[in-house]
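Marked as duplicate of an earlier ticket. Keeping the data here for the record.
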Amino acid sequence: MSSPTRLISGVVAVCAGLILTTNSAFADPELYKAAKKEGQLTWYTTLIVKQAVRPIVAAFEKKYPGIKVRYSRANSSNVAIKVLSEAKANRVIGDVFDGTSNVEPLKDAGLVVKWTPKGVAAYPVEYRDPEGYWSATHLYFLTPGINTGMVSKKDMPKTFEDLLNPKWRGKMAWSLSSSTSGAAGFIGNVLISMGEQKGMDYLRKFAKQDIIPVNASARKVLDQAIGGEYPIALQIFNHHTVISSRKGAPVTWIPMEPVTNSLAAIGLIKGAPHPNAGKLLIEFMLSVEGQKVLQKANYLPALPSVPAKEPTLKPIEGGYKANVMSQKMVHRNLQRWQKIQADLFR
């Protein structure tokens, strides 16, 4: 199986060294002037409101007085449904949207504006649409989460082969969510990194490990592992373990290579009633200033020059390799990965 993804490498590190680290946003005065005439924008977001949305809105409105941001929070699928419904009704309310799995479907539906924000060249090519429809704002790295009270450091599995050890049979769980943070994402990563034949051979062996299916989010799976329901939670967000461990939870993450790297992307909605204000928000989100707001909120900035709050969560600082799973690749393959999960892991 040929892979449309790329391993994050030292090339990104070189790019990071070339990026300007000024705190100013990318927007030019003319864009701000046009946005100020519109006076407002509506943002459909998947970010957690208290943790990230409110700080971003506060920072944006302080930098650009005269422009108010209205927002609505939902998961990626519901954001897509909202945008599609408005377009169908010929009553577009939203200006900007983001998400981990909704950009390509909306792009296919012709509901995303082709537009290249200023400063986007500072991002690795893997983190921006080659056709110019979206840009990544932040990253997710999906790894096993380990209950450190149930598994000693020396016994922790380090590789995919380690997960085949009979001692882990019936002791690993994953989410059934239809995203990269579920069983399908784990399966996709295996097929991409090992190749079709070797990957399927591995998955058939792995299916004998009696993985516990959980019909809940990856965060919930991790919480259950922290609570002692099982020692290993698969395909969880590595930054969630850090947030929990800071609060005293017995949990850590393993950089099992290659780690799944999924992207949260942002785009401008076709027919947006406030397109200039929408563009201004996007450029702010992609600026060093906007990325630092995400950093402070415990999200993992996509801009290489802005490290995570815990730097080792990202590949370069953490010294591990990751498969960048583009939204297009996930959109085209997710149903197949889900079918493999249904067929092998009954």
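See parent ticket for discussion. The radius of gyration is 20 Å.
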